[in-house]
Write a structure and sequence with these properties.
With 264 residues, the chain is α/β, with parallel strands linked by helices. It contains ten helices and twelve strands. Helices cover 36% and strands 24% of the residues. The protein binds nicotinamide-adenine-dinucleotide.
């Protein structure tokens, strides 16, 4: 399968190049970076500090889409939307790891996925997808005496908060309780905020250093507390999962899929 890497010089982009170069079923078709970037024209191997790959960085989105079977995209919401529009025109699979979309951007991706397979996940690691499942199961077992709080920590350069993964954990918890995250979420607290409301799903965000991604969901009652934690120590797990998802789309019908569809 020919795979193009969108945002190939980014933290995830370079990890994807390294991982793809070690998988025999994958041929790198090229990488996309913004026009004017100093890496345009360079070999992807050079960008990822590995051996030469014979595939190059371009800012020509349409040309990269045409020469690829699938695009893996860990960039910015506005970039991903542009990629999805072009990928839909050519019916090419789009693997979306980008986080921080607005509701209208998500509904545009849903509409476009009528024309190509899209796998979108806030987290491509197997462990986190299991955490989503466990969270839903625990939330459906415990009653409202167990307050749900979600804590996440990421590196200092992350620009969106709470993390997309924390929001997905919140959605899994809400699903387990047959509630809507939209109405139950409490994204931050500051000052005299009053007592916690029953059924609230709280979030707390920490930022610092080079933390790849830590997530804990806490079920706190009087007298006991259950905590489920996942800690990512390498971006490689996300890259491996995203490439696995790209290979999975081969021969798949158009539609919007999640990493859960890929792993289960
Ligand atoms: P990053 O800033 O290191 O990389 C983003 C790259 O996109 C940069 O190289 C940037 O130059 C490039 N870019 C920006 N505009 C572009 C354009 N117009 N065309 C082409 N390329 C463009 O960020 P990162 O840490 O790699 O994370 C990227 C995204 O992936 C974030 O939203 C992050 O939350 C998400 N992420 C998701 C997962 C997951 O498993 N789903 C895991 C890690 C990170």
């Amino acid at each position: 399968m020919k795979i193009g890497i969108i945002g190939c010089a980014g933290r995830m982009g370079r990890e994807l190049i390294r991982e793809a170069s070690s998988i025999s079923e994958v041929e790198l078709s090229g990488g996309l970076e913004r026009a004017g970037s100093e890496v345009i024209g360079r070999d992807l191997g050079e960008v990822a500090t590995i051996e030469i790959q014979g595939a190059y960085v371009t800012s020509d989105l349409e040309a990269l889409v045409k020469s690829s079977d699938a695009l893996i995209d860990f960039t910015l919401p506005e970039v991903t939307i542009e990629v999805a529009r072009v990928a839909a025109n050519y019916g090419k699979a789009h693997i979306i790891g980008t986080t921080g979309f607005s509701e209208s951007q998500i509904s545009e991706i849903k509409n476009l996925s009528g024309k190509m397979p899209v796998v979108m996940s806030s987290n491509f690691s197997i462990g986190v997808n299991l955490l989503f499942k466990l969270t839903e199961q625990v939330a459906s077992t415990l009653d409202l005496d167990y307050d749900i709080e979600i804590l996440e920590m990421h590196h200092r350069k992350k620009i969106d908060a709470p993390s997309g993964t924390a929001l997905s954990i919140g959605e899994a918890a809400a699903r387990g309780r047959k509630a809507q995250l939209k109405t139950q979420a409490r994204y931050s607290r500051e000052g005299r905020v009053g007592e916690r409301k029953p059924g609230e799903i709280g979030f707390a965000t920490l930022r610092g250093g080079d933390v790849v991604g830590d997530h804990t969901v806490i079920f706190a009652a009087n007298g006991e507390r259950l905590e489920l934690t996942h800690k990512a120590s390498s971006r490689n797990i996300f890259a491996r999962g995203a490439i696995h998802a790209a290979l999975w789309t081969d021969g798949r019908k158009p539609g919007l899929y999640s990493m859960m569809d890929v792993v289960v």
